[in-house]
Amino acid sequence: MANISKTNAARLLDRARIAYDLIPYAVDENDLAAGHVAAELGEDIRQVFKTLVLNGDKCGHFVCVVPGNMEVDLKAAARVAGAKKAEMIHVKELLPLTGYIRGGCSPIGMKKQFPTFFHSTVTDFEYVYVSAGVRGLQIKINPHDLIGFTRGEVADIAVPM
Hints:
The protein is α+β, with helices and mostly antiparallel strands. Helices cover 25% and strands 29% of the residues.
């Protein structure tokens, strides 16, 4: 594989001495969905996690990391974050808030450390994929290492699509 530029997320994992692999994939600007990413990687969509940023009425912003074949359950996510209700942030807010763009949002290395919640199936796998912080590049990582690094919590926060 040709030289792959390290992203900020990868450099942070290097600094923490956490093992991972950077896995490139072909980007389709018209299809940024996790299903496309999983197909390009040749991996089970349940192992390809998407990073979503929400805003809770009582807790502010928080992050949900859910399998590609599921969608965040807003009520469950709000409950675990300590809010009565929560909603997805508008895509225009994503870059200024996190430093990442849609289709390239990683739970690692956001501008600020937000409370982070992983769907409970994350620990079912030896490794999972999350965005490396840019479109076209995924991080393959042990889920326990990922949860520990992000100081995340595991909870039932998603439902099948």
